[in-house]
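User: Hello! I'm new to structural biology and keep hearing that structure can be predicted from sequence alone. Could you demonstrate with Peptidase M15? Please show me the input and the output so I can see what each looks like.

Assistant: Of course. The first part below is the input, the amino acid sequence of Peptidase M15. The second part is the output, the predicted structure written as tokens.
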Amino acid sequence: MKNNISENVSYREAVKSETAIRHAIVNEPTEKALANMRRLAEEVFEPLRKRAGGPVAVTSFFRSPALNRRIGGSPTSQHCFGQAMDVDGHVYGGISNREIFRFILKHCEFDQLIWEFGDDIEPAWVHVSLREKGNRKQALRAVKVAGKTQYWALDKA
């Protein structure tokens, strides 16, 4: 068993994928991706969890390129480099996804922060990524338009 990614993110949770299991896809990060995962967990997830006062579900973290292709992910997905995670406050109910989005926006370094679908009140989940350097601080909203996902820039105020 691998060590935890951080105090509150287990290795197993960070690499678990039902699609990978169903299709016998190896979903193991490289050492570089693992280092990226640790940084993202320490700098974003752990402060978020502390703010939530309890568990926050990590619904997607590392994806091998094979797994990413299988699920139809972007070829440039930061999940493949251990630089992105999706979190959902609804799973445990201690914090709303809107609160998650606002907390990260105001208190954490990030490359991209995405309000994933949902509505004007609440995202369905939150995607956050963190690069080693050159973080763009992009706050975006994912919406479906004519069956395709579009990303709209959000005002950071």
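User: So the tokens describe the shape?

Assistant: Right, they're a compact way of writing down the 3D structure. Reading them back into a model, for example: DSSP finds five helices and six strands in the chain.
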